């Protein structure tokens, strides 16, 4: 056991002479955390680490061969607008992240070589006007498309070129509107280049 000048206290346990766990407490409230604990493998390599922060936030990290593979932030004290953030890593780079918010919405992101390539927002508790929003990105992280699914059954599909919106397609999947599709294309400056409305009866109105 080690008692530091700053008032913190560190307890280390060993198994067969190898470090098995640690418990570091901030007894004098000198830091933004109250406790940090770790567990270790039979060879002493770091296996997990747990932080408890003053604001009620907790952070759990897992390791393989000393390299972090995942971490979970939990908002135990309800200090933030989210309840948890789960992040996974592969070969030291972020591979996925899922954020769950207080209102029940969630955001799941997928990464390739550390670059965001896909994300999906979902509305589990139906607090939004949409049920999900899906966004796709290029290997360089530039947006390619975004699809909105609204509670009314309307689906909006947007396509992008070089990160700039080039077209939008509304589909009335539940037949709640007087039209079946609205297709819009955009010019380089973002102005509408063409708009085509197809009514339920098949009549089309084209502008541009």
Describe the secondary structure blueprint for this structure.
Layout: E1 2-3, E2 8-15, E3 18-26, E4 33-40, E5 46-53, E6 57-64, E7 67-75, E8 82-90, E9 93-101, E10 105-112, E11 115-123, E12 130-137, E13 143-150, E14 154-161, E15 164-172, E16 179-186, E17 192-199, E18 204-207
Antiparallel strand pairs: 1-2, 2-3, 3-4, 4-5, 5-6, 6-7, 7-8, 8-9, 9-10, 10-11, 11-12, 12-13, 13-14, 14-15, 15-16, 16-17, 17-18
Primary descriptors:
18-stranded antiparallel β-sheet; mainly beta; 208 residues; 67% strand
Structural class: mainly beta
The run of helices and strands is: EEEEEEEEEEEEEEEEEE
Number of helices: 0
Q: Strand portion, in percent?
A: over 45%
How would you describe the shape?
A: elongated
Number of strands: 18
Give the termini distance in whole angstroms.
78 Å
Output mean pLDDT: 96
Helix content: under 10%
Low-confidence stretches: none
The biggest beta sheet is recorded as: 18 strands, antiparallel
Give Rg in angstroms.
25 Å
Question: Explain this structure to me?
Answer:
The protein has no helices and 18 strands. The chain is an all-beta fold and 208 residues long. It is elongated and about 80 Å long. The N and C termini lie far apart (78 Å).
What's a concise summary of this model?
By secondary structure, the chain is mainly beta.
